Amino acid sequence: VSGVGFQVHESPEALAEVVASRVLAAAQRAIAARGRFTLVLAGGGTPLRVYERLATSPADWSRWHLFHGDERCLPPEDRQRNSRAIAACWLDRIALPPGQHHPIPAELGAEEAAHRYAALIAPLLPFDLVLLGMGEDGHTASLFPGHALAQTGLTMAVHEAPKPPPDRVTLTPAALSATREALVLVTGAGKREALARWRAGDGLPVASVAAAAGAEVLVDAAAWG
Ligand code: 6PG
């Protein structure tokens, strides 16, 4: 389907194991080639198993620079913030040098945060690896079906998002596809319908971002159906 490859794994745990090793391999290649690794993190629950595995993996964290594909407009310490959830299960447990985790400053309001984050990432493109999830409606990051996708910038403010909270900041397809590698992670029976629509050629946001990024899609048996 539209050039992306789908790989089916028997369980979320097996999938997380594969993704963690893919992230570590991408890091080794990037560090060897360019002295640093730029990684865009997916939010939501699916990738947390991967982040937990990375927390106990041997890696040269001093060369890692972490970014976010999207963020919810909530206070920084709110556990519903993607950056906070990822710190709790991974970043708070490793020696990442200060200033190498770049949360989207969504507490500043969606427009201001989008503006600042676009300026931050522009000189760094392309990323080495982008991780993405998929919602049950086929959204990815905070790019939701039916929302006018402002294609001009690298980031955009999102309001009235169908998945709470309503106000978010997201990288656009242009930014998410400016990467050497991309992996989309899809697990659970709840994603079965959206995945079937994707495979049937529906123009879902995740489908167009994945195609533009040349992403590999890793799914578990429950989602594959
Ligand atoms: C968010 C995420 C979002 C997520 C999907 C899947 O802020 O909610 O960035 O895009 O990746 O909604 O979420 P789950 O992995 O929790 O199913």
TrEMBL record:
Catalytic activity: 6-phospho-D-glucono-1,5-lactone + H2O = 6-phospho-D-gluconate + H(+)
Residues of the Glucosamine/galactosamine-6-phosphate isomerase domain: 11-213
Enzyme class: hydrolase
Transmembrane segments: none
Pathway noted in the entry: Carbohydrate degradation; pentose phosphate pathway; D-ribulose 5-phosphate from D-glucose 6-phosphate (oxidative stage): step 2/3
Key words, A-Z: Hydrolase
Protein's UniProt keywords contain Hydrolase: yes
Alphabetized GO MF terms: 6-phosphogluconolactonase activity
InterPro entries, alphabetized: 6-phosphogluconolactonase_DevB, 6PGL, Glc/Gal-6P_isomerase, NagB/RpiA_transferase-like, NHTrfase_class1_PyrdxlP-BS
Pfam families found in the cross-reference section: Glucosamine_iso
UniProt entry tagged with the keyword Kinase: no
Gene3D superfamilies: 3.40.50.1360
EC number: 3.1.1.31
Function: Hydrolysis of 6-phosphogluconolactone to 6-phosphogluconate.
Membership in a protein family: Belongs to the glucosamine/galactosamine-6-phosphate isomerase family. 6-phosphogluconolactonase subfamily.
Protein name as it appears in the record: 6-phosphogluconolactonase
